[in-house]
Amino acid sequence: MAPLMTTVAVARHAMATRFEIVLHGGDPAALRAAGEEALDEIERLEARLSLYRPTSEIAHVNARAAVAPVRVSPEVFGLVERAQRLWSETEGAFDITVGPLMRCWGFMGGNGRMPEPAALAEARSRVGMHWVELDSQRFTIRFHRDGVMLDLGAIGKGYAIDVAAGILREAGVQSAFLHGGTSTIYALGKPPDREAWKAAVERPPVDPAGEPELLAVVPLCDEALSVSAVWGKAFQTANKTFGHVIDPRTGEPTQAAMLAAVALPDATDTDALSTALLTAGPGGVEAMTRSRPGMRSVVLFPGAEGGLRRIAHGLSLAPA
Length: 320
What we know:
This protein is α+β, with helices and mostly antiparallel strands.
């Protein structure tokens, strides 16, 4: 006789969003303990990675690395080193030094504003991973220019999801669904009654009272899915909307894409690459897809005459 399957759900607020974990198994007490341990780890990572906590390792780096090399934990060093590789892989479309531009455009703690040209030029001069020196022998980070800033917001949540999933595996959990704010997901194993977890990728309704538009349903099994979009913080001027996703290569809010979703075995990568695809344009989407065998994605672009254009790789799109 098969053991009785139970479902346990745990949740916690961290990294400015709500993390939730749904676990399936035979021992509810063990499932809950594993879920709570995973959430504890997410909180620990927030304390290390947060841009806004003055005691975090990242805040310490931002305050001192332009003066002298700053030693960090191997874990934080490894994540920054990985971000540097992703910056190179995406030809600068993903960049954790974009903070000066976010601040200049008023999106760091605000809803945005049009910057002065001189201020924008100054901010652009402080952006780029070429300003960041990593010493893998000493685990130190150094900036070669004053005003450079690391912001792991576009990769830290995915990394936290990966670490949490690893804790669940170590605890013997074989079926679980984790998400951080619904924008980054990890599907561990499969649900008890299906061959895969299924996650919907939706576009918010044009009319706030309307229904969201379904773009794709993504089956996941031991895989991650991240969705990035330009909606959220934005402002309008001269009949033009400027969103909070900045293209670090141009220094301006991206106009290339409206939404990007990426599925891969690793949430750290999906978090970063979904952000990069928003700024990459159609040609960049093709290049990134070729460089990542097995990557499944859908990107929503502005189309002709106010319409929308969808490009998908490895995913079945819902009817338009």
